[in-house]
Structure formats: structure tokens, C-alpha cells
């Protein structure tokens, strides 16, 4: 996975350089190097974020970064890891437009269990929308999932 991640990171960096080339006055590469200089450190950083979803404070503390730099690195490396997983063909599907598309993504899985939870939402002010979201419960207003 590391070679594909490294290639994806370099490709996306070249794309960013090309996009900013028109207004750039100096050559890219100068300046202070980041706290995550190698591709392996970047991969461990973004994988640990995807696995645990810590706060940016905790993530920054683990890798010696400030909260803002942890956030910046997560957003920058998110798309790199996404491209890497799509290249390897192991990126998980998030939404499907049809049942056939879901069956194609699941392959030979015979049974599929979907776990869903109700989430609270603000009470709608419109009477029609209130009736649509009413679940029969007294206190919290969870959104209906079906």
C-alpha cells in the first residue's frame, strides 16, 4: 500500500503545484519542511485518524503537531488515501443508487445486516413537516430511518 500511497501523494502534489503555477513567483520546494516528511509517516497519520477518529488535539499530540496543523494534514491526506484505496480497488462504498449496485458491491455475500440508529434533530416549525417527523415519542425528536 505504501508505494501506491507515495505515488498518489506525489501526483496530487504535482497537481497542486500545476494549479498554483500561474501565480507562483518562486520555485516550489523552499521553506520549512513539514512534521510528516516521509510518505510512511503520512500514511500512518491518516490511517490512525481513519481508524480511531481522535480529536485534532489528541492527533496533534500523538504526532507532535498543533491542532490546526493536524486538521490541515487530515484534510490534505484524506484525498490521497482515498485515491490510493480506489487505485487498489478496496475503497468502501458509502451509498448505492440501486439494489443491483449494492449486490454488485457486496459480491458473494449472502446475508447483509445493516445497523441503524435514530438521531436527534431540531423540531420543524412547519405543521406538515412536524407530522412527517413525529415518531410517537414524547421527548427527543429522532429522525426516522427507512
- The topology string of helices and strands comes to HHHHHH
> Span from first to last CA?
37 Å
Count of helical regions: 6
The tally of beta strands, per DSSP, is 0
- The pLDDT mean sits at 84
Q: How would you sum up the major sheet?
A: none
Poorly predicted regions are none
Radius of gyration: 22 Å
InterPro entries: Transposase_HTH_dom (IPR027805)
Pfam family, one: HTH_Tnp_4
Protein name: Transposase Helix-turn-helix domain-containing protein
Explain what this protein looks like in three dimensions.
The protein has 146 residues and is mostly helical. It has two domains: 2-20 and 33-88, no CATH class; 116-146, no CATH class. It is 53% helix and 0% strand. It is built from six helices and no strands. Helix 1 crosses helix 4 (67-88), helix 2 crosses helix 4 (67-88) and helix 3 (56-63) crosses helix 4. The chain starts with a helix and ends in a 13-residue tail after the last helix.
Short structural summary:
By secondary structure, the chain is mainly alpha-helical. The protein has six helices and no strands.
Key features?
extended; 146 residues; mainly alpha; single chain; 2 domains
Helix and strand layout, with pairings?
Blueprint (H helix, E strand, L loop, with lengths): L1 H19 L18 H14 L3 H8 L3 H22 L10 H8 L20 H7 L13
Amino acid at each position: 500500500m505504501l508505494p501506491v500511497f507515495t505515488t498518489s501523494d506525489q501526483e496530487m502534489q504535482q497537481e497542486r503545484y500545476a494549479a498554483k503555477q500561474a501565480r507562483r513567483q518562486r520555485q516550489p520546494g523552499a521553506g520549512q519542511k513539514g512534521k510528516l516528511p516521509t510518505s510512511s509517516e503520512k500514511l500512518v497519520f491518516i490511517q490512525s485518524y481513519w481508524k480511531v477518529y481522535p480529536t485534532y488535539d489528541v492527533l496533534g499530540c500523538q504526532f507532535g503537531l498543533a491542532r490546526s496543523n493536524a486538521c490541515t494534514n487530515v484534510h490534505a491526506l484524506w484525498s490521497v488515501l482515498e485515491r490510493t484505496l480506489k487505485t487498489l480497488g478496496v475503497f468502501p462504498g458509502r451509498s448505492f443508487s440501486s439494489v443491483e449496485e449494492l449486490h454488485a458491491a457486496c459480491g458473494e455475500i449472502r446475508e447483509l445486516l445493516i445497523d441503524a440508529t435514530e438521531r436527534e434533530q431540531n423540531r420543524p416549525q412547519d405543521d406538515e413537516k412536524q407530522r412527517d417527523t413525529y415518531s410517537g415519542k414524547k421527548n427527543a425528536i429522532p429522525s426516522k430511518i427507512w
